[in-house]
From TrEMBL:
The gene is queE. Its EC number is 4.3.99.3. Residues 59-275 form the Radical SAM core domain. PROSITE patterns: RADICAL_SAM. It comes from Pseudotabrizicola algicola. Its cofactor is [4Fe-4S] cluster; S-adenosyl-L-methionine; Mg(2+). This is 7-carboxy-7-deazaguanine synthase.
């Protein structure tokens, strides 16, 4: 698909159906059970790749294998991983057992344990508890990235839980109660961090407000990117200039606000490779 066409598709998600944010989220959340793979222990996988470096947030720079699950209860207007969200890509997703996923992780890492990032889609809607336990028994560590809409008791077993609630520019509404439940579910175990995508002033204000409600959690801010996901010719339309402009603005904004506890980082992998898959 041509780059511009894809970009229009992604941006169009803002006003696609005229429903309110709350209505859209409620309907999407209602679909969660249907998105869990039919066999109860099967993990719906979009892609497994690496090792590469973690490009975002608290673990930036760490060699990591990514397990990207398929299916999400959100539809962020600017999602950079639509191939793991939109049902148009469903044919590329595959139901895999815990053993199959672990075997792939082992093969990619040359049997040397490292950090595994569980991302998606929303990995919280997949049965990942056994993978985390069995992988950890072999020395692998697990981080999970989620928007905080669905919590699981097995969050407590993670090494790192990255909660990335979605700001106004995403056109999604935050369920603050669910977000709190995620934090509570993980309270006894992993390191928990907040990561916010920021495109504009309203997103910045949202991040400020959300962080204030979880004042003991470290905060990572990253400039949003409008680079569409997918095709191989992605480098041709990477929005590097826009990303760096927003990055500079975000640094200024944090300093002006004396928000000295915040960390500001770009998506390093996007700067290096664009939104290319598998890196
Ligand atoms: C693709 S999401 C998958 C995990 C989960 N659904 C979530 O949103 O946290 C992984 C990370 O990428 C971030 N992300 C997605 N699209 C982005 C974009 N266009 N610019 C910057 N970050 C983006 C999300 O906010 C999240 O922190
Ligand atoms: N290198 C690299 N770092 C990442 N950090 C978060 C990613 C994601 O899409 O979840 C991601 C990704 O896809 N690649
Ligand atoms: S919650 Fe994450 S995976 Fe789902 S649409 Fe938003 S950014 Fe994409
Ligand atoms: Mg990504």
């Amino acid at each position: 698909m041509a780059c511009q066409t894809f970009l229009r598709l992604v941006q169009g998600a803002h006003t696609r159906d005229g429903r309110s944010q709350g209505q859209r989220n409620a309907q999407d959340l209602g679909g969660v059970p249907a998105m869990i793979a039919s066999a109860p222990d099967e993990i719906r996988v979009s892609e497994i790749f690496g090792p590469t470096i973690q490009g975002e947030g608290a673990l930036i720079g760490q060699p990591t294998v990514f397990v990207r699950t398929g299916g999400c209860d959100y539809r962020c207007s600017w999602c950079d991983s639509l191939h793991a969200v939109d049902s148009r890509f469903r044919a590329d997703w595959r139901g895999m057992s815990t053993a199959e996923v672990l075997a792939k992780v082992r093969a990619l890492s040359g049997d040397t344990p490292l950090m595994v990032s569980l991302s998606g889609g929303n990995p919280a809607i997949q049965p990942l508890g056994p993978l985390i336990q069995q992988g950890q028994a072999e020395g692998y560590r697990f981080a999970l990235e989620t928007q905080g809409s669905v919590s699981r008791s097995w969050f407590a077993d993670l090494d790192v839980l990255v909660l990335s609630p979605k700001p106004p520019s995403s056109a999604m509404a935050t369920d603050w109660k669910s977000l709190r439940t995620c934090v509570d579910a993980a309270a006894s175990g992993p390191r928990i961090v907040l990561k916010f995508v920021v495109f504009d002033e309203a997103d910045f204000a949202y991040a400020r407000h959300a962080a204030a409600q979880f004042s003991d959690l470290p905060v990572y801010l990253q400039p949003g990117n409008h680079t569409p996901p997918g095709p191989q010719d992605i480098d041709a339309c990477i929005d590097t200039e826009g990303i760096l402009r927003r990055m500079a603005w975000l640094v200024d904004r944090v300093i002006a606000d004396q928000w000295y506890a915040a960390h500001v980082l770009p998506q390093l992998h996007v700067l290096i490779w664009g939104n290319k898959r598998g890196v």
